[in-house]
Amino acid sequence: MATTIFFVIILGHILFIDYVAASPIYLLGLYPMTGDWAGGQAMLPASQMAVIDVNANVSLLADYELIIIVTDTQCLGGTGTDVMYRELYDKKTTKTIILGGGCSVATIPTAEASKHWNLIQLSFSAYHPSLSDRSLYPLFFRMAPGAVSQNLVMVEIIKYFGWKRVATINPDDAAYYNVGLYYASSMKQSILESRFRVTNNISKKSNSTLGFLRRNLRKFPPKVNEQAYKTYVRPTLEFASSVWDPHTKDMVSQLDMVQRHAARFVESDYHPRHSVTQMLATLDFRLQAKANGIDVVVSESFENDPTIHIANIKRQNARIIIGNFWEQDAIKVMCAAYKEGLYGRKYVWILPGWFPQKWWHADNDKVNCSITELDKVVEGYLAAELLALAGGDSTTRVSNMNADEYSARYNSFVSNTQESLVGLDHGPYGYDAVWAVALALEKADKILKEMDPPSSLLDFNYTNDNMTRLFYDQFSATDFEGISGKVQFTNTGDRLGPMRLKQVQNNQTPADSFTHVEEFQVISVLLFSGITVCTVCGILLAIAFLAFNLAFSDRRIIKMSSPRLNNLILFGGIIVYWSIIFLGLDVNLLSLYQYEIISKCFTWCFVIGFSLGFGAMFSKTWRVHRIFAQKKPTPLRIRDSQLVGQVAAVVGLDLAILVLWEICDPRRASTYKGIIKPDPEDDDNIITEIYTQNVSRYQLYWIGALFIINGLLLIFGAFLAWETRNITMAALNDSKHIGMSVYTVVVMSFTGVPVSFVVEEPNSNYALLSCFIFFSTTVTLCLVFVPKIKMRNEVHPGGTMATGTTHSENVTQNK
User: Fold this and answer.
1) Is the pTM for the entire model greater than 0.70?
2) pLDDT score of 197
3) 393 against 154, higher pLDDT
4) Burial class of residue 790, CB neighbours in 10 A (0-12, 13-18, 19+)
5) Residues of the chain above pLDDT 70, percent
6) Distance, CA of 116 to CA of 139 (rounded, Å)
7) pLDDT value of residue 382
């Protein structure tokens, strides 16, 4: 009892010490929980899940406890900076990292201000291209790709399809490109007046510098103009902007005019019909397009109604149209495109990839188009986005969960209400963002503890430049497998990761990529069964001939035709028939190892059966040739044993080559890939044909040796058949039938062998080869034995040669 109490006390003491030792690390969370895009509804639960997982991980930030201080930016720039400043001025807690912004209009001003507090800011889903500018946002990182990353994908899409002419369209809306506005009703007049004076001074100075650059750099390329603008004009616009940040529409317009002039200067484009707003939004894309030989034939921007702008795109005969706007503006554009007929197979729309599923079904009452009409326009549009969830595979991520497990756990965490949450597809970004913070802080903490004197994360404050630089380095070196895929950052703070090119088809987004299916090319069971039945019939035919040969072996006509050699011909035919069956057995019915053995059986059976059958046939003809070719009156005795020995020699030579082949250069079964083709039953699949083969390194030489030997055998047989063609004793001389057999085999060989090398498809290849072998074997057996069956009852076989009787009797005696 005392031991148990002591153990409980010690355990409680350890747990208490561990609990006390866990120092809080505060993360300032800027989540858009309400407003135009309340994506924080989905991202916050994911971040909270990640905090639970990180804090439960004893090997990660063991001495600390992550705590997220949650605020609502309302997806507004002013509200975002307001809640951020309130928390940063709260001296009760020191925030180590800023999480979020969420939407661009709230992220841009907070990211511009956070650098003055030495705070790393990691956003979930802000896409604005300006956030990639390290001179403006030196401490900013984001989990979602910026517009620049998507521009790269769009350019590659255009290059892939060989398009050279594109059009762009964007909303002429400062709220889309800028940071959100305050109205001045609640501000003191004195503050407003001072800010107006500052704005006027900055505007005048910037315009003066811009005019100087324009006069002196008129003929320089856009890259030089852009660098000059960044060096001499933009620092004036940005100086202390987080303090005097313009809050009225007039102030924003005044400074925006400077940027509009700068855009025309950089692009050297002063055409009155070209939109400056679009230049500001897609300047990076236009530069990349020009660098790749892509002509942006028209650039349109609209305020409320895009009808006239869509009509202008149509007049310019632009077929490839790139849009950059929110989904509420996209619905207007798609409706106008329907009215103008800019849809169908002749047109391609490339839109942002962050739109929700079936976005054109929402707010449909605001446009004069039905859902059915919008369905026709959006059919086939292209979009590029980062994969928010790394597929439903079984890969274990840094959180010890795969994508499927995350989805199930997330759904349970939000009480099975995930489908109703705004920004659901951005949830994995919120989860991985916390892990990125935890891993970076873990590395930084280890480095701090090894310093002299040692330090810790708790020593961070808003003036500690060295620690901020350390945090920055660790974030830049981030590299782990997250729920959203590989998490890495570029030198501009953008997420490095696989982009998904999606296309809407039949109102649905198809699979993000093709599924590669390996399909073994095998012989059809039905074809194999049919040919096997025919082959068995051939074997039964050969057995019937063999039975006839044995049953009538005492008949004079059978004795004269050398029945023993006839038996060898039949055995050779049966073995060749078996090779057809072996030829049809592949990996459809066997394992790869079994296929290797059966494939060798085919070769051995075919070679030995051919040598045995034709060797015996030609030996008979050779004896007839020898008997009738001699000029001496003395009878020539050639026994069957001598002929069998000749056949054995031919078969033995083939066996020697086969054995040497197997010992010196054994064949091994292997697979290789054939053509890649679409799946006719499923458009999301691509089939890679897999073929099996049983080959060796020097196979061609071994096959050549066998061809030479058996080819010489055929030539020799043809010669003997020609030499004995005038011997008309049918019972004794098979030269006519042998000649026909040789002709059949030669024709089939010269036809079948090349075709077998050309035709790769297994069924066609097997059907051709098996038919050639079956036909040649069956014709040969029938030519040899059918005439004997017809003459079986003839007592005195006919013959016209004077020496016919004498020599035939001599042959009969030699048996």
Assistant:
1) no
2) 60
3) 154
4) exposed
5) 71
6) 10
7) 86
Q: Which residue, chain included where needed, has tokens 């006509």?
A: 557
| Alpha carbons 221 and 478: distance in angstroms, whole number | 36
| Amino acid (1-letter code) at residue 30 | L
- Is-contact 108 131, C-beta < 8 A? yes
Q: Are strands 499-503 and 382-386 parallel, antiparallel or unpaired?
A: antiparallel
- Distances in Å between the Cα of 561 and the Cα atoms of 126, 553, 555, 735, 784 are 95, 10, 10, 12, 10
Hunting for tokens 């809407």 — which residue is that?
504
Instruction: Say which amino acid occupies 439.
Output: L
Query: How far apart are alpha carbons 763 and 226 in whole angstroms?
Result: 64
Cβ contacts of residue 73 below 8 Å, gap of 6+?
30, 31, 32, 33, 35, 40, 79, 80, 83, 100, 101, 102, 103, 106, 110
The single residue listed with the structure tokens 């000059």 is 228
Specify the DSSP element, H or E, that contains 28.
strand 23-31
- 576, 609 in Cβ contact below 8 A? yes
Record the tokens describing residue 485, joined without a space: 């895929």
* 87, two tokens: 């928390």
Q: Note the helical H segments in 70-166.
A: 77-88, 104-114, 147-160
Phi, psi angles (nearest 5°) of residue 118:
55, 40
* Positive or negative torsion for Cα 366, 371, 372, 378: positive
**Residue that has been written with the tokens 């055409």 in this structure:** 271
Quote the pLDDT of residue 448. 94
Distance CA 547, CA 132 (A): 91
Q: Which residues contact 46 (CB under 8 A, 6 or more apart)?
A: 410, 427, 428, 429, 430, 431
Q: How far apart are CA 580 and CA 593, in angstroms?
A: 19
Residue 633 is which amino acid?
A: P
Q: Decide: helix, strand or coil at residue 382.
A: strand
SS (H, E, C) 142-153: ECCCCHHHHHHH
User: Kindly report the CA angle at 662 between 760 and 759, in degrees rounded to 5?
Assistant: 10
Rounded Cα–Cα distance for residues 55 and 795 (Å): 107
DSSP structure class, residue 508 = B
Question: What number of residues does the chain have?
Answer: 815
What is the CA 16 to chain-centroid distance, rounded?
52
Report which of 293, 29, 325 is spatially closest to residue 170, judged by C-alpha positions.
325
Pairing relationship of beta strands 320-323 and 668-678 according to DSSP bridges:
unpaired
The pair of structure tokens assigned to 681 is: 């039953």
Pairing mode of beta strands 140-142, 295-302:
unpaired
For helices 249-267 and 222-232, what crossing angle results, to 10°?
140
Instruction: Reduce the secondary structure of 682-706 to three states and give it as a string.
Output: CCCEEEEEEEEEEECCCHHHHHHHH
Ordered alpha helix ranges (H), 451-504 = 465-476
Specify the higher pLDDT residue, 123 or 275.
123
